[in-house]
Amino acid sequence: LLEAYFGVIEAGAILNPINVRLTPSDIAYILNHSGSKAVFYHKDFTPLVEGVQAALNESESMVIMEGEADGLATHEYEGLLAAATTDYRQPNFDENDIAELFYTSGTTGKPKGVALTHRNLHLHCLYAALSLPGIGDDNVFLHVVPLFHVNGWGTPHYGTMSGATHVMLRKFDPSTLLRLVQQHSVTHLLGAPVIFNALINFPGLSQYDTSSLRALITGGAPASPTLIQAMQEKLGGLAIVGYGLSETTPILSLARPRQHLTASEPPEMKMKRQSMTGWAAPGIHLRVVDSNGNDVRPDGQQIGEIVARSNTVMEGYYKDHHATTSSIRDGWFHTGDMATVDETGDILIKDRSKDIIISGGENISSVEIENVLYAQGSVLECAVVAAPDEKWGEVPLALVVLKPNAQTTPDELLAYCHAHLAGFKVPKQIEFRDQLPKGGTGKILKAELREPFWRGLTARVH
């Protein structure tokens, strides 16, 4: 796929990376909706492709990698490369032509195709290189984030532009990842918070040399100050929270320390700032607005929706005018992420709009509760979701995975929450789980966790 990021474009075609964790029906829908004419797949995914092929409308070529052409595959990848002509003709395209399609996961309805243009990708590459620390040809990027996810966080483009080395991780495993960091002197490690959480709690961490790490970039889900501090102390390097969406190519903001603020602030405030959503990257205009489109008060309290305007905002959703006009209004892309902004301009996401818990008319951030639980010290992973309640409409409920050998009870965790949260924000119940369901990037699937509590009800209470 890293080769495809460049080869497909050089061929004058459109790249359409597929999330291999989607259902066969979703994959077939994406390939048909996009009009994809060639499907490249690794031999390990042959059973998945077999389940998709019969439903395809237009795919004319099935190209297998590290396998042999058979009844399913029409071509073999290395054979195609070996037979290719050396007479290359530069494709002729406009900067506003579509270069890539990224289909959203389809949590509400069918997946939507995010159309990114050559202009989107080119300018995002420059913006990202300006935003992130120490981007240069001595960088070594370890890819933990799947390249089918959110434009690979832009790393294929700005990493290659800077002359960096790409190290690919086929499947996340703490020992394998740490071995690669040590073996290749990795400088930039990118992953969702759950990945870093697993690394800092890995029993064998001290056996590996991670001194080469300069930047630990995390995003895709909220990161607590506790996690940010542990990342820096146990792995080394600077921990940076990034924020963005497929629709914005993706980076919108980064929580990089700002010397004029952090130099005079206590260490705990510095960690808090580094765990926030941060401030807009170069080339990005961000606002937090209320339901009437007015900017919220910069007091770190009033919650509104993050809206963005930039050259990196998508052209639109492919073949979906209605969804495009619903998301991009008056030139501003509406993210659906609910946040506050403080007097320094730092944005802090409180939740996705669908994850805000409205209890008795009060807006409760599940992320705020999760951060408190993580700070308690016994919690490995947690997710706070809305559960139905006859009196309040809905209430927060916490699902918790404890660290190995941790000794605590739900009542002890509730007592800790009472000591650190307003009473109405304290979970009404805490349940221990062996594990929490996760998506392709390691993001905890709150919708899946929430569903059993609401099953059988005709409507959400609120």
Residues in helices, as a percent range: 25-40%
Rg of Cα set: 23 Å
Average pLDDT: 92
CA(first)-CA(last) distance: 43 Å
Question: Which keywords apply here?
Answer:
single chain, 462 residues, alpha/beta, seven-stranded mixed sheet, five-stranded antiparallel sheet, 15 helices, 25% strand
List the helices and strands and how they pair.
Elements: H1 2-10, H2 24-34, E1 38-42, H3 46-53, E2 61-65, E3 75-76, H4 77-83, E4 98-103, E5 113-117, H5 118-131, E6 140-143, H6 155-161, E7 165-168, H7 174-184, E8 188-191, H8 193-200, E9 215-218, H9 225-235, E10 238-244, E11 251-254, H10 259-262, H11 267-274, E12 279-280, E13 284-289, E14 304-310, E15 316-317, H12 321-327, E16 328-329, E17 332-341, E18 347-352, E19 357-359, E20 362-364, H13 366-376, E21 379-389, E22 393-402, H14 410-420, E23 429-432, H15 446-454
Parallel strand pairs: 1-2, 2-3, 6-7, 6-8, 8-9, 9-10, 22-23
Antiparallel strand pairs: 4-5, 5-15, 10-11, 11-12, 13-14, 14-17, 16-17, 17-18, 19-20, 21-22
Helix pairs in contact: 2-3, 5-6, 8-9, 9-11, 13-14
Short description:
The protein has 15 helices and 23 strands.
What does this molecule look like?
It is a single chain. The chain is globular. Strands 7-6-8-9-10-11-12 form a seven-stranded mixed β-sheet, with helices on both faces. It contains 15 helices and 23 strands. With 462 residues, the protein is of the alpha/beta class.
